[in-house]
Amino acid sequence: QQARALNSLSFDESSSVISKNSRYVAGGVNSNFRLGMAPGPLVFKRGEGAYLFDVDGNRLIDYYCGMGAMVLGHSPAGVQAAVKAQVDEGILFAGQSEVEFEAARMICERIPSAQRIRFGSSGSEVAQAAMRLARAATGRSKIIKFEGHYHGWFDNVLWSTAPALADAGPAEAPVPVGGSRGQSRLDLEDLVILGWNDLAALEARVSKGDIAAVMMEPAMCNQGAISPAPGYLEGAQAICRKHGTLLVFDEVITGFRLGRGGAQERFGVTPDISLFAKAIANGFPVAAIVGRADLIDMFATGGVLHGGTFNAQPVAMAATVATQAALTPEHYEKSSVFGVRLREGMREELAAAGIKAQVTGFELMFHVAFGLDAPAKTYRDLARADKAGYARFTLALLKQGVRALERGAWFVSSEHNDDVVDQTLAAVRIAAREVAS
Ligand code: PLP
């Protein structure tokens, strides 16, 4: 299939299933982030390794990787077996199970900031827990978040996330831009939006003494793949400590992807609180809030409520243990080689086709932006990229059997081996020439 002629794949059956089922499911999708790209939402039957198989009979090399969750690729045998075994033992106890304590121990041993942990079910949800905790711990109400950083879809954080920047004001004093109709503006009382990677702006605002927490992606990966400026994370930590503000790292994407200990281990800065989801359980709905023991213990003894029917659900916990067991140092070494080959190959192929593009990022996650002269340092730089040109490229790639996110992110798993990278780069060559002509 992969070797079929240029632009041969058809997605008609997906389109037909979506249109038939839109009478039940709004837009045919259960997350707005799946509405996106041409030729419309796809419908899948099966995932295996680096591949997804759709209802049209196409085999697609998948670089969505469950929006970053599938760090081991699709259907890894160890996770499948652990999950099946746990299903036989029971699905939900509304009580504790040994498997959740095993999962907790593994995460706490791996993540530098994790003295204690509480599990949840989604990144959005644990971000809420972090803000509540920070407010309780400091007695302050305001939270700083940064332009372009995403901490979930709830009203109080869905600001200046991926907006058009037309009405976002000057970079030094960003005007909050909502991410959805229907959002309460009351939440803005407690939210301060700043530009990231700017220590002077952070110091100026935090030093007023009314900030409970500074929340950030330690490397900005939901939009682009932008590293912290040298000294930025250390500086942010020092500013927070000086003014009694808590530092929260949202590692929902970076966790278990920039390395086993996340961005905090890679960059050597240990926040007070951190958030994990996505790759923690290779596709099972698991999230975690971890951090200093005195803070996380406030959920138990400090009057801070944290609940959830599905928290630490045993089947998801079995997936967590099996995923963490597979995330060995060798896993990172092996998959990094593939990721770097792909990233560098991508850069070469795009240049050879005469496309101006910036390829930035890490081994298991990188980002491609068309039309920029230099790598983006901020979200505002990224907003100047040629999004329409890149969308044409991802459509051309899809027709060649490679599924990559329209927003430019590429997620690599340990299943994206040399053979898969070769196939991908061959498709990139064809797609790049097509859009360049
Ligand atoms: N934080 C970051 C950095 C994310 O990228 C995401 C999701 O993409 C979230 C939080 C929200 O996680 P979830 O989609 O599991 O609610």
From TrEMBL:
<dbReference type="InterPro" id="IPR015422">
    <property type="entry name" value="PyrdxlP-dep_Trfase_small"/>
</dbReference>
<dbReference type="InterPro" id="IPR015424">
    <property type="entry name" value="PyrdxlP-dep_Trfase"/>
</dbReference>
<comment type="similarity">
    <text>Belongs to the class-III pyridoxal-phosphate-dependent aminotransferase family.</text>
</comment>
<dbReference type="InterPro" id="IPR049704">
    <property type="entry name" value="Aminotrans_3_PPA_site"/>
</dbReference>
<dbReference type="InterPro" id="IPR015421">
    <property type="entry name" value="PyrdxlP-dep_Trfase_major"/>
</dbReference>
<dbReference type="InterPro" id="IPR005814">
    <property type="entry name" value="Aminotrans_3"/>
</dbReference>
<keyword id="KW-0663">Pyridoxal phosphate</keyword>
<dbReference type="GO" id="GO:0008483">
    <property type="term" value="F:transaminase activity"/>
</dbReference>
<dbReference type="Pfam" id="PF00202">
    <property type="entry name" value="Aminotran_3"/>
</dbReference>
<protein>
    <submittedName>
        <fullName>Glutamate-1-semialdehyde 2,1-aminomutase</fullName>
    </submittedName>
</protein>
<dbReference type="GO" id="GO:0030170">
    <property type="term" value="F:pyridoxal phosphate binding"/>
</dbReference>
